[in-house]
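STRUCTURE REQUEST FORM
Protein name: Beta-lactamase family protein
Source organism: Aquimarina algicola
Requested output: structure tokens
Priority: standard
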Amino acid sequence: MYFASYCFYMSKYFFCSVLVLFFCCKKVEQKSEEEVEIVEEVVDPDVSFQNFIDHYERFFKTNFQISECPGAALVIIKDSTVVLKKGYGVKAVNTIDSVDVNTVFRIASLSKGVTSVLAGNLVDHNELKWNQLIKASINRFSLRDREQAERIEVNHLLSHTTGLYKYTYTKLIHKGLPLDRIIPQFRYKGVIAKEGVDYEYQNAIFSIIEKVMEKETNVPFDQLIQERLFIPAKMYNASSTYNAIKSNDNVALPHSFNPYAKRYNITSIHKNYYNVAAAGGVNASITDMSEYLKILLGYRPDIISPQALATVFNPFICTNNEDINVNYWEGVVDSFYAKGYRILDYRGRTLIYHSGNVNQYKAELMVDPENKIAICALFNAPNLLSPVTVPTFLNYYDFYINMNKTGSEKQKF
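Status: completed
Returned output:
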């Protein structure tokens, strides 16, 4: 309750602060009353946008310091241009080793979206179909309901609509079992709904897509994602294996919070979820994520076509009744899950969103296709800032949009 109240208070407090700051942004030279009146009424869109970026970055930096989270990184993209990209804090507590824009984090469940984009690339190359049957590629896959197992498609894996209860076999992931040993266990699992009609968030069965891709391309998943996505997108620090992050000397280490000592402590990078890399095993720097956001904004048709990207973002299942944080955001009317992404009906426009949480790392990503703007934030510890990073960004950006509309209307007169 304290966390929720704090987050609500801070987002409202800083949103109110930015209103004052925007209205106070005027030139300081001595001018006549008439000239000052003109400056107040007519807003320069370029200056206004930079003010928006500056004030949001001030919000982020201030709240990052308040949270005492060890390290973070932030990027904002407008059109195809990086307008803000920074590292904050340190890679490890009790050091002065600063996070920079090439420092690698685990991006947790943002991996699901990355995997879905990779699937789109394979669809573009006629190596995969969205309605492809899993059983046709992975014969050893089955469920207790064998008929339903025969009907499960790629669509169902990527949208969490296989009919299984949520988080099926997460315990096996935590035990470190490889995917090849997890897959045969599904034959013992019953379903709670028909495929395609019920949303139940998954990690283990989602990652069966790895084996489908490997079967259809004859290329290991970690190599495939490098060759088709990371290398052409210039995501040079991105990877999808435990060995890759352990061999990198520029990594933000994970931290847990000790509520009794009221401090963060370094924890180890564990192997969990690298055994289901498609769902939670991608590593990336904020520079890598800036290139990835350009893909999501549609500026890399050489990696994924507009048609395939639209299919990735096409709502597949309604999640309005789910107990998920986005359903409590002010302005969100409806929420859906597509393929690796949440789709939000926010104040009349469509947003693409996902968050991540693994091994103490936190990640937030949002794309506004209509306004061609996107944001991603990465953290190396649980903190109070991460859940308000995107909704506060939206509040700031909406104010910027509305102020520009007001300025444009006044210019007409």
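Reviewer notes: Residues 1-45 have pLDDT under 50 and may be disordered. The first helix runs from residue 2 to 24.
Form closed.
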